[in-house]
Write a sequence for this structure.
């Protein structure tokens, strides 16, 4: 994971404001637009994704959480992978709903 953080942040580490790299570190999430949080269960950051969705809900931000427990990071980018195709269709519908109303809080 250290290698991935270096790719994401560069060699200088965390920016002056850590919430730029990790949004859950912000003082308040209140007032953010509706969010769609996708969690592949075999991703090393799946726990952080669940925590982020919970923090958004606690801040009264409409959230749709989609949990794919048997999937891995990046699975939705594999265009010919049938599970990815199905997940993308669901997520596009979720995005459409979240953009046209305040979400359903699920």
């Amino acid at each position: 994971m250290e290698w991935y953080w270096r790719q994401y942040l560069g060699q200088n580490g965390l920016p002056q404001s850590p919430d730029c790299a990790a949004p859950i570190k912000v003082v308040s999430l209140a007032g953010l637009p509706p969010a769609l949080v996708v969690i592949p269960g075999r991703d090393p950051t799946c726990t952080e994704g669940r925590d982020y969705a919970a923090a958004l809900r606690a801040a009264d931000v409409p959230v749709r959480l989609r949990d794919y427990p048997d999937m891995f990071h990046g699975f939705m980018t594999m265009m010919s992978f049938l599970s990815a195709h199905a997940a993308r269709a669901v997520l596009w519908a979720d995005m459409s709903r979240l953009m046209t109303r305040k979400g359903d809080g699920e």
Residues 49 and 62 are 15 Å apart (CA to CA). DSSP finds three helices and two strands in the chain. Residues 82-100 form the longest helix (19 residues).
